Amino acid sequence: MHYGSLMKKSAPERFDLQIEQTLSVHEQIERYFERLVRSGGLKAGEPLPSSRTLARQWGVDYRTVQKSLRHLRVSGVLAGQPRGKTFVRGKADQAAIGILLGYRLTDETAYFHRKLVECVHQEINEDKEHSLACMEYDGLGGLKTPDDFQNSLGYRRLTRDLQNFSFHGIIQVLRSLDLEFSKQTWNLPVARYNPPAPGMPTDVIMDHYHFGRECVRFAAQKGAKKIVYLRTIASDSNDLDGIYDAVAELKLPKAEVCQLRRSGEGGAQTEKMAQEKTLELIKPRQSKSGEKPWPDALLVSDDVVTRGVALALLQSGMGVSKRQPLVVTMANKEIVHHYGIPVTRYEFSVQEIARELVRLLWLRILHKNEPALPVKIRGKIEQDEK
Q1: Which sequence spans correspond to the domains of the chain?
Q2: What is the pLDDT of residue 9?
């Protein structure tokens, strides 16, 4: 149904968007104005009709139009004050920072990436000295061939926008990155957040050594001796070094490490693997010495894995008894998950990661001296979730 055709057109005939039911209204409006600007149908400095005028013409809620125009101002396509005239930015004024992401932001378990993008936006918007758009391009990780990479929606959008905006720099937030692409950043300054890997430079990273060391020390303070680490980190051994050093320092039995594979099918499969592994760890076993057969503490490197651990403990009945092992998980300060069991969080600040990425990018844009790299972000142990 074409809602717009039901209304008398009181705005200029050129704004003849036909609203369809297949996409959200605000997304259709944003794409419509992006096409007009790219095609030259709207010229730099040209004013737009008011939100109410466009809403009447298209037969939609004016607040939806306001939301779309606000997003277009943030992304740098349009300019103007929220309650004033809105007009098309000149290309010289369309300055932007690009964020390249491996995960799709629409994936259920992309909590960290959505929050990091939000925090980067916040850091850039708080910069009163520069007026920059912040634009993200997701789904760029895990692609098998250069053709897959270049045909991805995120890459095509980035290539298009590089022709229409004046980019100042790029922030890369990728787990796997096409190495040829990493060498072709269009001569733009880049700040990278990646797990360290051979041939994969990184600028800002979580201090996994501190995570491993402090989690073991915390578990030991709670009386734990038998420790099992459920791990999804694959490209960094610093967490293991921290665990092994703390175990040796405290003269604890050797910690058992269970390496879990991140599933390309999404978080649900990873959660299921964690649930099955935890059930295996705590299943009843005979012990001649009378010692408890299950772990005293479960250290977990991933919030999705922690959900699987919690499900297993609840399924076994341990999650509602004093027999439950201590669970300590790597977490993000700004993202709270409720697991249904007590969980101690070792929290990293996503805001601090975003702040360091933006700071480093500006140092490179302005050709200023940089700190020693990589910048390591430390977290801290928080109280149990009840």
Answers
A1: 3-63+74-88, 94-188, 206-349+379-385
A2: 39
Beta strand 166-173 pairing with 95-101? parallel
Amino acid 17: pLDDT = 83
Q: Which run of H or E residues covers position 114?
A: helix 111-125
Instruction: Report residue 43 as tokens.
Output: 């010229």
pLDDT at 297 over 50: yes
Type of residue found at 321: S
Q: How many CA atoms lie within 13 A of 145 on its CB side?
A: 3
Please, are residues 305 and 271 in contact by the beta-carbon 8 Å criterion?
yes
Asked if residues 51 and 62 have their Cβ atoms less than 8 Å apart, the reply is yes
pLDDT category of residue 261 using cuts at 50, 70 and 90 = confident
Q: How far is CA 330 from CA 127, 181, 354, in A?
A: 31, 31, 18
Say yes or no to pLDDT of 90 above 70.
no
What CATH architecture is 206-349+379-385?
Answer: 3-Layer(aba) Sandwich (3.40)
By CB atoms closer than 10 A (0-12, 13-18, 19+), residue 360 is buried
Decide whether 3-63+74-88 matches 206-349+379-385 in CATH topology.
no
Among residues 216, 191, 206, 156, which one has the least CA distance to residue 344? 216
CATH architecture of the domain formed by 3-63+74-88: Orthogonal Bundle (1.10)
Q: What is the mean pLDDT of the chain?
A: 83
pLDDT at position 6 is: 30
Q: How far apart are CA 303 and CA 308, in angstroms?
A: 9
Cα 123 to Cα 119, 261, 331, 351, 355, distances in angstroms: 6, 34, 21, 9, 6
- The DSSP 8-state label assigned to residue 297 in this structure reads E
pTM of structure: 0.73
Q: How far is CA 32 from CA 26, 45, 81, 241, in A?
A: 10, 18, 21, 53
What does the pLDDT look like over 125-182, one tens digit per residue?
Answer: 887 666 677 888 888 877 777 788 788 888 888 888 887 777 889 999 876 544 455 4
Sign of CA dihedral 98, 100, 101, 105: positive
Distance of alpha carbon 220 from alpha carbon 17, whole angstroms: 64
- Single out the residue of 85, 84, 88, 49 nearest to residue 72, CA to CA: 88
